[in-house]
Write a structure and sequence with these properties.
8 helices; Cro/C1-type_HTH; DNA binding; Lambda_DNA-bd_dom_sf; mainly alpha; XRE family transcriptional regulator
Length: about 110
């Protein structure tokens, strides 16, 4: 069974690895957070956060998870398993077309429609 973080990561992968840049910017704006605030909380430098926010650097699944937790979106009992980590790594290596095809398959498999 997949953890919620794997599903969130897959659904957010289109723009920045495991998190949409626009979503992150919106959350930061709502909370009056600077890139330094977020970076310090999750272990990224100002330069790294600047690159993330400008689309020049993708977040790893671990970095995205730390940001979600910092923003209060991850559940304490939602720990990634070894399988989750392997799947996230595999997803990070896929092309956009492969991700789209997998998303269609998973939605069909789960009985969901976009």
């Amino acid at each position: 069974m997949f953890s919620k973080s794997v599903i969130l990561c897959f659904s957010d992968m289109e723009n920045n690895g495991c998190m949409k840049v626009e979503w992150l910017k919106s959350e930061m704006s709502k909370r009056n957070l600077t890139q330094r605030d977020v970076g310090e909380a999750v272990g990224l430098s100002d330069a790294q956060m600047s690159k993330v926010l400008n689309g020049l650097r993708k977040l790893s699944s671990e970095e995205a998870d730390r940001i979600r937790r910092f923003l209060g979106y991850a559940l304490p009992d939602d720990e990634a398993t070894e399988l989750d980590i392997r799947l996230l790594h595999a997803l990070s290596q896929m092309t956009d077309a492969e991700k789209s095809a997998l998303e269609v398959f998973l939605q069909s498999f789960a009985g969901l429609k976009k």
